[in-house]
């Protein structure tokens, strides 16, 4: 198993549009399916409620790390489990990075999530698989969100 997830997609949208979809908390919420309490601020905790069907009971909590305009947006977050009786808040979090590069036809979005090697062994594979599948879906969601309608 790798200790990092990597996804890449070329979006047919300008860099500024993709940046806004990633860093405006309302737009992020639309495609990611989360209702956030307020804007993303580096060094601060972002809180909210997941709105994805079947996960509405899950709270969103992430610590915004970096916001380098039209280049890098990153945050760390803990990992939910279906076991609602267990508190995973003390478990190590992983780092999610969205890197943007301008291309001739739009924007290249590179997503990396790292730090799975710090998650306790019994949960590591479960969290990795869940997030890998989730990011595959989220890349499609952001593409649909920023793509111009035909």
Radius of gyration: 15 Å
State the helicity in percent bands: 25-40%
Structural class: alpha+beta
Series of H and E elements: EHHEEEEEEH
- Our count of helices gives 3
CATH class: Alpha Beta
Number of folding domains? Answer: 1
- Strand order, main sheet: write it out: 1-7-6-5-4-3-2
Q: What is the CATH topology classification name?
A: Alpha-D-Glucose-1,6-Bisphosphate, Chain A, domain 4
Report on this structure.
This protein has helices at residues 15-23, 25-32, 121-146, and strands at 4-11, 34-36, 45-50, 59-68, 72-77, 94-103, 106-114. The chain has a seven-stranded antiparallel β-sheet with strand order 1-7-6-5-4-3-2. With 150 residues, it is of the alpha+beta class. It has a single domain, classed as 2-Layer Sandwich (Alpha-D-Glucose-1,6-Bisphosphate, Chain A, domain 4), CATH 3.30.530.20. The mean pLDDT is 91.
Describe the SSE topology.
Blueprint: E1 4-11, H1 15-23, H2 25-32, E2 34-36, E3 45-50, E4 59-68, E5 72-77, E6 94-103, E7 106-114, H3 121-146
Antiparallel strand pairs: 1-7, 2-3, 3-4, 4-5, 5-6, 6-7
What's the short story on this structure?
The chain is of the alpha+beta class. The protein contains 3 helices and 7 strands.
Features:
Alpha-D-Glucose-1,6-Bisphosphate, Chain A, domain 4, 150 residues, 35% strand, alpha+beta
